[in-house]
């Protein structure tokens, strides 16, 4: 069972991913291929996110 804090973080992380998908024209989760994930990682890296935070986002 996950703590409320962890669940809130995961929800925020997934919201960021949804924001990226919307801006990239990715309409549904099955369309999120490895190229899109790499692009998302680059997008988050450019925003200044640290490595550990990005790892947590990807685990969500």
What is shown here, in short?
By secondary structure, the protein is mostly helical. The protein is built from three helices and no strands.
Mean of all residue-level pLDDT scores? 92
Order of helices and strands: HHH
Low-confidence stretches: none
- Calculate Rg over CA atoms: 12 Å
> What is the approximate shape?
globular
Distance from N terminus to C terminus (CA atoms, Å) equals 14 Å
Helical residues, percent = over 70%
Number of helices: 3
Largest sheet: none
Strand-pairing-aware structural class: mainly alpha
Strand content: under 5%
Q: List the domain count as a whole number.
A: 1
Number of strands: 0
What does this structure look like?
By secondary structure, the chain is mostly helical. The chain has one domain. The protein is built from three helices and no strands. Helix 1 crosses helix 3. The longest helix has 21 residues. It is globular and about 30 Å long. The two termini are 14 Å apart. The mean pLDDT is 92.
Layout of helices and strands, plus pairs?
Elements lengths: L3 H21 L9 H13 L4 H9 L1
Features:
72% helix; 60 residues; mainly alpha
């Amino acid at each position: 069972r996950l703590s409320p804090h962890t669940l809130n973080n995961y929800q925020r992380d997934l919201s960021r991913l949804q924001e990226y998908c919307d801006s990239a024209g990715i309409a549904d989760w099955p369309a999120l291929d490895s190229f899109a994930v790499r692009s998302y990682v680059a997008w988050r890296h450019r925003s200044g996110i640290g490595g550990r935070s990005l790892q947590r986002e990807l685990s969500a």
